[in-house]
Specification:
It contains 11 helices and no strands. The protein is mostly helical.
């Protein structure tokens, strides 16, 4: 029962954090407390775990809107990065999620002077089916940012049509989180078929699943990214 209760608390914390990020993206107001801390200024374990689940998107408003985050929020984010390093047997998506968080931390915190982490291996995406590729990219949606050049982004850029197929499949399966994550990538990828009707598709995903903050977040990011342009 205790484990079940902890899981419920974590799920709620992730949803609350995702909602705060969406609110900040919509309003462009970083007075919004995206990363909460306790009365003593220290984030609790559940909050840190929620930041780790959401990954680099926990500081997405600062990255996309180019405004400095509150130092206290950066401290919480940094603590989450340090508290949850990937294990030796971690899945590739976990390694890449951690790497993306470390990259974001370096971007928003000038006090980070250590050498950047080496990119994890992206070979697991080579030759992946379009279904599996779309699923993995949706999990790694926080990597879908303008102006980035990493192995996952390059792999996505080579297979825009496959990601488009995966987006359609996710919509048909009513997998709104996967559809939103894939749609976020598609707003940046080159060569997306015009026949996809991406913006209409994203509006439909929002209508059907947008009440879930973990759907609303990548959708709101996609709207912001639409103004930025495609990946090179």
């Amino acid at each position: 029962m205790e484990q079940s209760g902890t899981s419920t608390l974590l799920q709620g914390a992730v949803q609350d954090l995702a909602s705060a990020v969406v609110s900040a993206l919509r309003g462009g107001d970083h007075a919004v407390a995206v990363l909460p801390a306790g009365a003593d200024g220290e984030a609790g374990d559940v909050t840190l775990a929620a930041v780790r689940v959401l990954g680099a998107d926990a500081l997405l408003p600062s990255v996309l809107l180019h405004t400095p985050p509150d130092p206290a929020q950066v401290a919480v984010f940094r603590k989450a990065v340090e508290a949850y390093p990937p294990r030796a047997d971690a899945a590739p998506t976990v390694r890449w999620s951690h790497w993306a968080m470390a990259r974001t931390l370096r971007q928003v915190d000038p006090s980070v002077t250590s050498e950047p982490l080496d990119e994890p291996d992206a070979g697991w995406l080579d030759g992946a089916s379009w279904q599996f590729l779309t699923h993995q990219l949706a999990v790694l949606a926080p990597l879908a940012l303008p102006g980035q050049d990493d192995a996952v982004t390059r792999a996505a850029g080579r297979r825009s049509v496959d990601v488009a197929r995966g987006f359609v499949r996710a919509v048909r399966r009513r997998d709104w989180r996967q559809a939103a994550g894939a749609g976020r990538w598609l707003t940046l990828l080159p060569g997306v078929p015009d026949t996809l009707g991406l913006q209409s598709g994203l509006d439909f995903v929002d209508l059907m699943g947008g009440q879930d903050p973990q759907v609303a977040l990548p959708l709101q990011a996609a709207r912001q990214l639409t103004r930025t342009g495609a990946l090179v």
